[in-house]
Model the fold of this input.
Amino acid sequence: MRFAQLVGSRSLEVVVGADPAPRPGQAVVAIDYCGIGGSDRSAWVTGEVASPAWFGHEWTGRIVQLAQDMPDRFVGQRVVAAVGPSCGQCRPCAFGTPAHCERVLEQIVGLDPLAASHGGFATHTVADARRLMPVGEAIDSRDAVLTEPAAVAAHAVRRSGFSLGDVVVVLGTGTIGLLTAELARIGGAAAVVSVDHASARRELACDLGADAAFAGVNKGLTTWLHDHTNGLGADVVFVCVDAAEAIAGGLGLVRPGGVIVAVGVGNQIENLSVTALLRREADFRVSLGYTIDDVRRVQTLMGVDQLRVRRLLQPANVALDQLADALQNENQSSGPPKAVVGVSA
Done:
């Protein structure tokens, strides 16, 4: 087995180790592909990560071995890293809010008791079998690496309270931003507007269904919103970019009584203006992670090609030995946002 692990800021090593053996409740998965996410790039820069298993968490592969306490009929099944059902025992579950299950969040960030000692930048890994989601027959294995980011986007759309006919603005056209825009369109938005400084990404957003795209929170965007909302502003603004000024900019776009949602772990909210929220009586919400239901929903949409993910993938695979070079290349704005490490494929 070979796997990549961080050893410091902008430094990693590819380790050769023994093939993993499953503990009770675990499955061994041969990795086919693993997406490089924004959190992986942040970990590369800082040399710090929430857990070793979090470094490379957007993976898909095939079950090659199961623990002795589990039936072997699932060996050979294509799976994607997801989450299991809520545990029913933690405090949020006992309180009646299983969507905030502590065990599920632990699985997402690789802190659960059955997590591997490394992430999915590897030839093999182990995982709690309960968090492995079968990949639908209609979904290509390489496309499946976007299941987890799509579930994050779906969770944000659901958290927003989004309604049919809403006007939606999405700040950022990285992987999460593009998927959020697509899902808002699928969900029945009257109009979706994407915002990003990169012209290629704005073009991609429009190809995927955005009605308009702007280079920033500028006069063109505010004029467009004025003309299409009777001067009120957007019903929902999603902030899908890690920039301190993004939330402040989004507050200026939302209508009175509207909603602004900060998506993901990277958002900086130090500059959140409560006064701006009060003036509009707007809701500020955050969205972190996803649930098993979010995963099922996006897989259904991917399987019938309503959620079109392939355009988000960079065409060439990154070899495991080239991972450091791919992480070092931070200029990802000129093409599709998602780099993919191809391991056994």
Summary: The chain has two domains: 2-142+313-342, 153-287.
